[in-house]
Design a protein that fits this description.
Blueprint lengths: L1 E4 L6 E4 L2 H13 L15 E4 H9 L6 E4 L3 H9 L7 H6 L7 H12 L4 H4 L2
Parallel strand pairs: 1-4
Antiparallel strand pairs: 2-3
Length: 122
């Protein structure tokens, strides 16, 4: 299974599994108003690079391969992406993500399967 990345193998980006994002939305709506220090929150979960993602996928799909063909436009966007988000959500209502990289890969492959279009997108 061959896949193509337009970013450098070491380019790290913040990611969040949608279930964590939906749960964060519900948690902030249910949090006591007096515990919230602001009206809008940036929520973060995990960060990883394509090289780390590939290594995690390889644990499940031994024939997985990735090719790097760095494109300057998406690379510039990724390089300019903020890495540190507001941590007030963790302080104000105890936000904590559930899906780290291993859990995210396992869940995605279990939901979509290794032969799905999602797993083979390139």
């Amino acid at each position: 299974m061959a896949n193509l990345s337009y970013l450098k193998p070491s380019t790290r980006l913040p990611m969040m599994y949608i279930d964590d994002g939906l749960r964060a939305t519900l948690e902030v709506m249910e949090a006591p108003a007096e515990s919230l220090s602001m009206r809008t929150y940036n929520i973060n979960a995990t960060s990883f690079c394509s090289e780390e993602l590939a290594q995690e996928v390889l644990k499940h799909i031994l024939e997985f391969q990735i090719t790097y063909n760095v494109d300057s436009v998406p690379q510039a966007t990724a390089d300019s992406w903020p890495m540190n988000f507001d941590s007030n959500a963790r302080k104000d209502w105890g936000w904590k993500h559930h899906f780290d990289l291993p859990e995210l890969v396992t869940t995605m492959l279990n939901v979509h399967g290794p032969d799905s279009r999602v797993a083979q997108a390139n």
